[in-house]
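Quick one: structure for this chain?
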Amino acid sequence: MKWGIVVYFSAVVIGVGVMAWQRGQLRELAVEESRLLGERGAILETEVFGPEDGGAGGSGVEVNVRGGGDGESAAGGAGGFEVSAWVSRYAEKGDEMFKDEEAALATIGELSGATPAQLGEVYAGLEELSHEGRDEIMMVVLALMAREDAERALDLAVVHDEGMDFFMAGLITPALEWWREHPDDAEAWFRRNEEAGNFDSLESNDLEDLEMMRLAGRAAADPAGFELGELGNPTKYTKLSSTLERLDSLLDTQERQIEFAERMAGLDEESASTVLHSWGEILAQRRSFREGVELAVALGDEERFDPIRFEVAAGSGGASKQERMNWYLSEAEGREREVRIYNLIGEWTKNDFNGTGIFLRDLPASPDRDRAVRAFAMTIADAEPPSAVDWAMDIGDEEMRGELLGRLYRKWAEYDRRAADGYFTDSGIDVVGACLPGE
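Got it. Here's what it folds into:
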């Protein structure tokens, strides 16, 4: 990158184009990109751009820098960073410090060299100001602070009048890592803030997000020992998928993944299926097909892990439908094979109707293709009864074709007998005879 300032931290800042923008747009982008990029935990080139029309600050603003206490202070510290000088400059220039790419990278580069204690003092200084873009910069400061001191960053975020929702976008990854690596300290932090009433003013969704983060961190810290019945209860927590997304970022080894899967498989049958299907879907989205297969193989062929195998096969990236189906059916025979085909085609049809149709059209004739076409036709029957009938006519097995046409006719005729009769007659299908045996 031209400006060459590379900042390492697991939760990033804001990235927008070099153009004039509205503050609301910046906030939306800040939250979304911090969430997405922060989860990757990679070395990122930080791009923070500001409005072309300058900032809201005025000259001669007196700043009362508070906070700090431990570590380096405003007098100067790591890399020569000076808190008072930086905050005073922002108070005077405001968003001019972020007016273009070069200025933004230089500003963030300065902050990245500060210690957590110094960043705490910067945050305190920013609280004294009322610049329009202040909260976005405070988010940057907390994201940088959380690299080394997640507890301090969370302490500041939880009492900010904007609520946790905005700040958690930049803090979620380091906070989760802290909970995994220091579960006792993190649990003590949660209890301390709960007892102090610091969560009382949070919106209900913010509080639920915190609880989800807590559960995910505790589960990652001890997948085999933590009682996860509460996580597996979909009626109690409506954000199960969100929690598992956060948890998955912490299950960074196959050993941890297996440990977690085995623990979840030990829940009651309904909860185990719900959690493993949800987590399997996340695995399929975030990891390659090969990685998903390797995990499934490592888990073994026990029936309790079927939800993970299914979701790995039903994914959409990194492998063709043919490759996925071949793997999923490789050891299935008889009734089990039929069920797997039905479920897999049904899932693909719901998520990719056209792609699934093209896949089936190009399959060579075989018993598996007949079963797959039957599953496709049954899945689309409610929404597209004529198309379902056309697909059923393409089944090679005569008995299967007749049985399916009968089912499709009865289903259609329940709510529109005239349309069903007309379409079957026009298609040359003997409704009374071959289509409806035994009636």
